Amino acid sequence: MADLPRPGASGGRGPPCPGAASAFRRWEQLRRRAATPWARGLLAAAAGLGLLYAVLRVPVRLRDGLAAVTMFLSTLTPKFYFALTVTSSFISGLIFVFEWWHFRKYGTSFIEQVSVSHLRPLIGGAESSPPAPAAFLAGENETSRQNMPECKVWRNPLNLFRGAEYSRYMWVTGKEPLTYYDMNLSAQDHQTFFTCDTDALRPSDTVMQKAWRERNPQARIKAAYQALELNNDCATAYVLLAEEEATTIVDAEKYFKQALKAGEMIYRKSQNCHSQSPQHEAQLRRDTNVLVYVKRRLAMCARKLGRIREAVKMMRDLMKEFPLLSMLNIHENLLEALLELQAYADVQAVLAKYDDISLPKSAAICYTAALLKARAVSERFSPETASRRGLSTAEINAVEAIHRAVEFNPHVPKYLLEMKSLVLPPEHILKRGDSEAVAYAFFHLQHWKRIEGALNLLHCTWEGTFRMIPYPLEKGHLFYPYPSCTETADRELLPTFHEVSVYPQKELPFFIHFTAGLCSFSAMLALLTHQFPELMVIFAKAVSTVVSFPYLFVSICCL
């Protein structure tokens, strides 16, 4: 018969061994004795004695340390102080130069950026808050999208040809005019416009689908020739060769004419069978994009080769044939060509259609409207005469149009007035940004110069816009507040050798002022130490004594 467990034993089992049981009993006795009042008083007295020792000992050690430091400083020579100040000036100067370079290149302070990104989370970081409900976040995002204009990158309607213009610039100057970000956006556009789901059914289109994703230009050109070997009527292959292999506008126009012949034939076939399936509808959209692109580039070739009336007719026909493709901004190409013809009545007719409050604006729309109104008064405009007799109604309208244009894009006047140097425009632009200003001024500066007095009127009035919008990032006058994201996007779109225009101008960060002051102060101390060594040593010892006096006073009071 098994033994029964002892009453009161935990779990019905005793200690595993006698030694453990005795240790457990001793621990229980010690714990009960420590809980008595006299034991607690003894522990409190020991803690008080330890604290008293620390209070009495620390000031003594602090006084001894300060005495040792004072003795060490009294033994230093003038050469040491000179080397110290020179080294401090040199290091702070390096930090100042780096901070200035980082601010000019990226628009932010490096020290401030590191402090916010890395040190703040280590010190404490932002207080964590519970996640908001998904419905609330969705509503907040929708509200922010309605209240704040989006920094959207657009295809430049007047973009140049890579082989005939961008590449020639690189051959002459050795500078890359396009950024990787800009070319990557173009590759995405080509894949969107020139490919569809049915490309796998045609070997030539399959090759071109891979060609648009190639990073190496020579690999893209080689793939285009492979596609033409498979199908001599591959329109997108001719488009790629016209854009990248042709080294002159004449050669590019020849390739585009071949692409037009092939594209029209494929477009007619797609029209006949587009209602058969969704795949055929997608193919029709792709063939429509190819045809519109080719006709537009042919019109641009005619414009560049001096056949301006032919280019205007091609653009008008294209806009009539495909009226729903207004998002491609073909009217901006038409405006530029009409200005070259000096057909200002036709320009006004185009503006009457597209300069509408319900349509998105652009620098070309706003500044062309200002140019037409300035044309009516600029020839007789004089600042001295206007200040004496005041502005006429026509002059007020011209000034208001200029203020409207400057509010939309404040970077343009500096390029039109040749206060900043121009570079080749990128393939994509940011509306209201420096990239759009470069693209507009590159093509329209000649039209402003052609009208006598237009640039003089712009020079006299454009800065008055900023008095109407003292806080452009918070509130605008005729448009939304100026977006704060333009600088970052423009730095990605424009080449590195171009100095990006920033609006509104940022104040220099605190650390640039601090490092500049520290460098200047250290250099001044180094110069004084070199010229008056004995006097500066006495001054340094006096400063060290004054600095150490409060610590000595505290230690004496503690004693």
Summarize the topology.
Blueprint: H1 18-34, H2 37-74, H3 78-106, H4 110-123, H5 134-147, E1 153-155, H6 162-173, H7 180-194, H8 203-211, H9 217-230, H10 235-245, H11 249-273, H12 278-304, H13 308-321, H14 330-341, H15 344-354, H16 363-375, H17 383-389, H18 393-408, H19 412-416, E2 428-430, H20 434-450, H21 454-461, H22 465-468, H23 486-493, H24 510-531, H25 533-558
Antiparallel strand pairs: 1-2
Helix pairs in contact: 2-25, 3-24, 3-25, 6-10, 8-9, 9-10, 10-11, 11-12, 12-13, 13-14, 14-15, 15-16, 16-18, 24-25
How would you characterize this protein structure?
The protein has 559 residues and is an all-alpha fold. The protein contains 25 helices and two strands. Strands 1-2 form a two-stranded antiparallel ribbon. Helix 9 (217-230) packs antiparallel against helix 10 (235-245). The protein is extended, with a radius of gyration of 38 Å. Mean pLDDT is 80; it is low at 1-16 and 125-149. Its main location: membrane. Keywords: Membrane, Transmembrane, Transmembrane helix. It is a multi-pass membrane protein.
